[in-house]
Backbone:
């Protein structure tokens, strides 16, 4: 297994701390201030995105699902365009369109964006993967989704072709056992989404999704397979959804035992760092996010002219 | 797609001769480019293109003579291919070019104006006949009175071409004595005169006046003291009422007592009305109009004042609807509002049999009762003129009416 | 350069081949394209461009359209032959959300070329789920361009434009015209611009605004009308998004009468929008209400005879035009 270098560990921890700072800030912000949209908190579920993103090159294509912000941070996005979007400001990644349902993207960083009709990432990721195969550019495409989204028909349509064509594609499932309040067992005979891989003739891997290093390691292998032309891998990260489906969710459905075995991914990763590095990185991340939050708040609001932008590109 | 190229209107010029084409068939031209040269009775003129396009066809040849508005050629939108032009011309040879020898028609542009700028005639202007939206716009744009437009569509519907036909008939009416005179004037016999062609409304007024002047009309005058009326205007009850409104109110009530004046003359009978629909003559830049206050007998002096003001504003802004102008039973004309005329005799508004004229209010010395004797005083007064159709009425009932009116006004 | 008489589908294929030769980011995917395509458009493609750029796929329309979106975002120029316009509904999310909105909702002003081919309309017994005219959906969801060629020449010229267009194009090929033939320019620089209508017949009494399968029928109706003294202009819209309003309004302000004819259902079909805009923008140039002629509002029957009875024919177009001219 490819254990991460110390410098990479530091980088992963820093990114996770930045994500965590944004997550905590958004939990407070959505409670206390005006927020247009639905914030789907990812606090406590940062390890899988951070670990997987660390295994990708910056030119690899990431198609994420919109819980939390750790995928974008993990892939290299600054806090400012994320916070700008969350507050609906002109300095957000969407330049004022709003990101209360996240739509941040940065093609230069391989952050391709989110489709809020869940399950749309599968064929899109196959599209970029096919592009890489035709161009032979060695890039890998990763489609992130939740256990609830594994039911979509496009999951099957896409993987059937991607496996046959050996596309450089990774299916990355964050299985938190919940689809809003519905338990995965209710819609799937198998508790493990990774089982589905068998039918397509591709590897299905289960990993502890609270452990960023473990996630990193399995993703590195899947990436290597994809780059080598050996085709797709399905990774299933077992994760814990610490909060409600959305900020403010009363969670009447919540099983009191669900959080019993919860482990904080930040603490797990901190244990691998030396001395007081973790504390220093958290302090640094908090400061960075505080500065970005102020900048986002101070940024101009969009005016209605934003509505008429970006519909058609004029060559 | 083919558009007409026509001899433009140039002042009083009627005839023109094509000297030469300056643009060839198939040539693309730009706005302002000279297309052809014509010679008129006075001078020769280079005719320029208003818009860019492609010259599709020369219909006229050098030396041909034309009237203003005649078509000399055809053009199409810029960029139209020669194949399409040829195809379009194929259709035209049968239809339109053959028409050239037929009736002459002044082309009227029918381009889309931005909706906000379009002020079509109300549908009611067609007097119950069906009318197309295009016809409504063209009629308003060219001030065509729909009373003079015959609807040739299904069920008598008025279409755009009907309005244009009426307009053309008007513009190209045969040379009359007046227009010959106008031409003479314009030709320099009297170089300082302006030729103002009659509007459709002026023509209608003229026709009605000639009709009215054939009626044996007499006028009876009666002076009325306005002291009480002026005082009433200052009272809390009368505040806001105009002199016209108050007199009209008094007249409406008096007419209920004297219905013979509130009537229409017909050859076989009198039509005597039990309600008063009061015509009020209003002077507008386009000429006199007489909108009608419905059920004037039901209005107070203040109500009458407001009703008249509303109609006058509609008249001046051109918003009168045809139904505002019909069905009057009696008319008041108020030249005194324009200037201090001494008498207000007027022609009747047939088929009505009587008309009340209001001249200016004067402050005149007059004899007033002073105990058993008389004293001189200066009082505001007005000399009411009641013109009437002597076929329908003799002096008696008219003077009786005036007496009632006088005492009503003086005892307000 | 010279012309060649060829079929509508072949002309579309020629446009595609020429562009694929010039731009190696173009690839085509669909069911059966490797073996020449269901309607012959893709004949010979695989032997020239190989299976890397000519891809057969299974019955997976959402996947096909979604893959097009993903590949286009990644800078490729995908062409997807969806087989039938009906399948737009299977891939609705991928077409009307992903292709149409992706850049907009991410605040990206970047090029995104993708061509989705939808064969639409009656073809002689394909039944109610293989004959739909779905082009109105592309007009309703902002972010797409929508074309419907009616001649072989336009099929080629619009295909070339679509592949040079930096926005996703829904390319509706007309099943009923698939085997019709026409002169097609062989010049590789020849294109038909998206958003430009063509006046197929000049006329002065009324404007028939149409596209796709109804263009030849409207032209035939116009010839019949001419013999009755009614001079109809026939406008082939060719593009529905953007729609050539200048051409439509210029015509209507000349003829003062308009009718829209299409094979799509009459209710809430493209004609509803076109008629509404004509009356909004040129009401006071009209002599008569704007008429609409479309398919009866019933699913199309499988029987080829009943299928034809449900959509406008030369007879019904002529009759409606005659009625319009008389209003
Ligand atoms: C196609 C579609 N159906 C339903 C929804 C509504 N929805 C938003 S999030 C969500 C739950 C997704 O569950 P899962 O994929 O397990 O992700 P998680 O919320 O657990 O992170 C649902 C049903 C949606 N956005 N898109
Ligand atoms: Mg879940």
Residues:
């Amino acid at each position: 297994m490819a254990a991460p270098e110390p410098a990479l560990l530091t980088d992963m921890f820093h990114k996770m701390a930045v994500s965590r700072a944004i997550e905590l800030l958004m939990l407070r912000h959505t409670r206390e201030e005006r927020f247009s949209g639905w914030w789907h908190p990812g606090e406590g579920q940062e390890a899988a995105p951070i670990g997987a993103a660390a295994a990708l090159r910056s030119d690899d294509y990431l198609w994420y699902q919109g819980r939390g912000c750790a995928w974008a941070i993990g892939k290299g996005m600054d806090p400012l365009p994320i916070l700008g979007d969350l507050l609906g400001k002109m300095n957000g990644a969407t330049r004022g369109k709003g990101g209360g349902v996240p739509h941040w993207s940065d093609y230069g960083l391989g952050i391709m964006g989110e489709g809020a009709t869940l399950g749309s990432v599968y064929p899109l990721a196959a599209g970029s993967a096919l592009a890489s195969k035709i161009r032979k550019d060695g890039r890998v495409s990763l489609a992130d989704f939740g256990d609830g989204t594994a039911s979509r028909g496009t999951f099957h349509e896409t993987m059937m072709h991607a496996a046959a064509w050996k596309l450089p594609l990774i299916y990355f499932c964050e299985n938190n056992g919940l689809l809003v309040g519905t338990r995965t067992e209710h819609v799937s005979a198998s508790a493990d989404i990774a089982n589905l891989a068998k039918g397509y003739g591709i590897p299905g891997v289960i990993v502890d999704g609270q452990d960023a290093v473990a996630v990193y390691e399995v993703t590195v292998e899947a990436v290597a397979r994809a780059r080598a032309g050996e085709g797709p891998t399905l990774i299933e990260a077992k994760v814990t959804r610490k909060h409600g489906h959305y900020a403010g969710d009363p969670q009447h459905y919540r099983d009191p035992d669900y959080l019993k075995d919860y482990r904080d991914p930040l603490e797990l990763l901190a244990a691998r760092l030396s001395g007081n590095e973790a504390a220093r990185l958290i302090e640094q991340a908090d400061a960075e996010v505080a500065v970005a939050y102020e900048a986002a708040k101070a940024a101009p609001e969009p005016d209605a002219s934003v509505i008429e932008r970006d519909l058609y590109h004029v060559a | 797609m083919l558009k007409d190229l026509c001899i433009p209107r140039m002042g009083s010029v009627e005839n023109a001769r094509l000297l030469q084409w300056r643009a060839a068939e198939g040539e693309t031209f730009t706005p302002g480019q000279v297309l052809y040269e014509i010679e008129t009775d006075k001078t020769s003129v280079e005719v320029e293109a208003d818009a860019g396009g492609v010259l599709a066809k020369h219909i006229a040849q050098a030396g041909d003579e034309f009237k203003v508005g005649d078509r000399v050629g055809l053009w199409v939108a810029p960029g139209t291919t020669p194949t399409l032009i040829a195809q379009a011309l194929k259709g035209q040879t049968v239809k339109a070019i053959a028409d050239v020898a037929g009736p002459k028609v002044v082309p009227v542009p029918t381009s889309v104006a931005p909706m906000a700028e379009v002020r079509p005639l109300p549908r009611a202007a067609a007097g119950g006949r069906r009318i197309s939206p295009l016809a409504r716009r063209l009629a308003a744009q060219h001030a065509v009175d729909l009373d003079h437009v015959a609807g040739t569509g299904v069920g008598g519907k008025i279409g755009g071409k009907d309005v244009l036909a009426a307009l053309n008939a008007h513009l190209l009416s045969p040379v009359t004595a007046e227009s010959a005179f106008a031409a003479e004037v314009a030709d320099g016999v009297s170089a300082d005169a302006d030729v103002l062609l009659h509007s459709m409304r002026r023509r209608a007024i003229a026709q009605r006046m000639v009709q009215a002047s054939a009626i044996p009309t007499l006028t009876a005058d009666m002076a009325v003291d306005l002291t009480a009326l002026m005082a009433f205007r200052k009272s809390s009850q009368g505040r806001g009422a105009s002199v016209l409104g108050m007199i009209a109110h008094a007249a409406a009530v008096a007419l209920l007592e004297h219905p013979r004046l509130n009537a229409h003359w017909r050859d076989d009978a009198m039509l005597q009305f039990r309600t008063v629909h009061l015509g009020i003559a209003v002077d507008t830049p386009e000429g006199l109009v007489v909108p009608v206050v419905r059920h004037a007998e039901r209005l107070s002096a203040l109500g009458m004042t407001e009703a008249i003001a509303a109609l006058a504003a509609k008249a001046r802004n051109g918003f009168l609807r045809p139904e505002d102008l019909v069905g009057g039973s009696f008319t008041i004309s108020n030249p005194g509002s324009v200037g201090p005329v001494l008498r207000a005799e007027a022609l009747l508004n047939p088929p009505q049999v009587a008309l009340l004229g209001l001249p200016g209010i004067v402050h005149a010395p007059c004899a007033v009762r002073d105990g058993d004797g008389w004293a001189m005083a200066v009082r505001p007064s007005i000399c009411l003129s009641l013109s009437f159709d002597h076929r329908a009425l003799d002096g008696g009932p008219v003077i009786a009416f005036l007496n009632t009116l006088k005492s009503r006004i003086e005892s307000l | 350069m010279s012309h060649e008489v060829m079929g509508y589908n072949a002309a579309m294929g020629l446009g595609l081949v020429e562009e694929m030769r010039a731009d190696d980011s173009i690839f085509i995917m669909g069911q059966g394209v490797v073996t020449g395509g269901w309607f012959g458009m893709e004949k010979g493609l695989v032997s020239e461009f190989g299976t890397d750029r000519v891809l057969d796929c299974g019955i997976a329309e959402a996947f096909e359209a979604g893959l097009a979106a993903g590949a286009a975002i990644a800078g490729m120029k995908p062409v997807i032959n969806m087989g039938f316009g009906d399948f737009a509904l299977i891939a609705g999310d991928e077409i009307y959300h992903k292709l149409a909105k992706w850049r907009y909702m991410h605040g990206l002003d970047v090029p995104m070329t993708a061509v989705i081919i939808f064969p639409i309309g009656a073809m002689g017994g394909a039944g109610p789920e293989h004959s739909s005219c779905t082009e109105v959906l592309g007009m309703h969801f902002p972010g797409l361009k929508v074309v419907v060629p009616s001649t072989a020449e336009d099929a080629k010229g619009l295909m070339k434009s679509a592949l040079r267009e930096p926005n996703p194009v829904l390319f509706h090929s007309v099943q009923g015209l698939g085997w019709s033939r026409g002169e097609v320019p062989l010049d590789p620089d020849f294109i038909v611009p998206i958003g430009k209508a063509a006046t197929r017949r000049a006329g002065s009494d009324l404007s028939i605004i149409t596209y796709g399968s109804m263009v030849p029928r409207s032209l035939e109706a116009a010839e019949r009308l001419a013999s009755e003294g009614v001079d109809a202009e026939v406008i082939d819209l060719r593009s529905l998004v953007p729609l050539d309003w200048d051409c439509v309004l210029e015509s209507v302000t000349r003829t003062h009468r308009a009718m829209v004819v299409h094979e799509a259902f009459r209710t809430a079909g493209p004609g509803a929008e076109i008629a509404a805009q004509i009356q909004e923008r040129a009401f006071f140039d009209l002599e008569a209400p704007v008429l609409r002629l479309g398919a009866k509002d019933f699913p199309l029957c499988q029987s080829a005879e009943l299928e034809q009875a449900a959509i406008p024919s030369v007879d019904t177009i002529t009759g409606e035009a005659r009625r319009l001219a008389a209003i």
